[in-house]
Specification:
Blueprint: H1 2-15, H2 30-35, H3 38-53, H4 58-75, H5 80-88, H6 94-104, H7 110-120, H8 123-126, H9 132-145, H10 153-159, H11 173-186, H12 198-218, H13 221-233, H14 241-250, H15 268-298
Helix pairs in contact: 1-4, 1-15, 3-4, 3-6, 3-15, 5-6, 5-7, 6-9, 9-10, 9-11, 11-13, 12-13, 13-15
Pfam families: DUF6895
Protein name: DUF6895 domain-containing protein
Domain DUF6895: 7-286
Length: 302
Amino acid sequence: MIHGVGDRAVAWLHRHRDGFHPRPEADTPDREVRDRLKPIGELALIGKVLFREGVAGSRQAARSRQLLDHAWREQLDGGRLLAWMQREEPLSPIPFEIYVPFRELGYSSPEVEENARLTHRLDSWAALEALPVRRLGLAAFERRFGLPASIDPGEAVGATWLGRLPEPWTVGLHIGYGITHTVFHLTDWGENPDGLPTDIAEYLARWLPAWTDDWLEIGHWDLLGELLVVDACLPRPALEDQVWRAFAAAQAPDGAMPAQGPLPEGDGREIFDEVYHPTLVAAFASVLATSRAMGSLIGEPA
């Protein structure tokens, strides 16, 4: 069941891969192009997880590689679109955040890399004002790229909502996404569950079931999917069968996952913009949960 969620999600993303194009029309404004780069970065991050975990079947792996090849060559123009954005907005971290997972997957652009290294040397880069979870993420991307962190990771963690271990009943939608992304950055998107500090791991183990039940009851499948990823990032994931069955039932037969409630109606572009993210999250949660479930069966290394 869990694996099937991801297989269907990847199939939908593959069929709708043209929806990731940042310039869908010749006259698409540059501002909109920049905004539409984010989904491609999310695709690369989750593609990296899929290949890293090695639990996808041959068909799912082939579709994922075709998706990534298409995104890099056709939609990012071999990295030239990222270099363009670096020239337009030198201090924007978005091109760097998008590039790092593509680089880890074997794609490269010397121009993007040189621009990133030059920008990283600026005092202004370290002085960028951003939410603590964003600074934590940048520090993680810098480490993965081989650059010194522009902020002490421990300091960044302590400044996040999750790092303070606050009252669990105060969690709302935006705090919920902050929690999930703090976990993603601390664990390198599920690769290293030991990256979670012990107090945070214990806090999550205690309160994650309550948050999961809340968002399941609301039917917010996008955040629920991210919380299922968080569960799979814990040292001892619950992989709760009832929650996973409800999550799988929310997925459309064609693989699309609504963000909340039923699937929206509208034209192809509108629907893609509404469901691409929860569908990516469904693939992410499925791959990581499948990997952890298989690891528990064969005995993960200590």
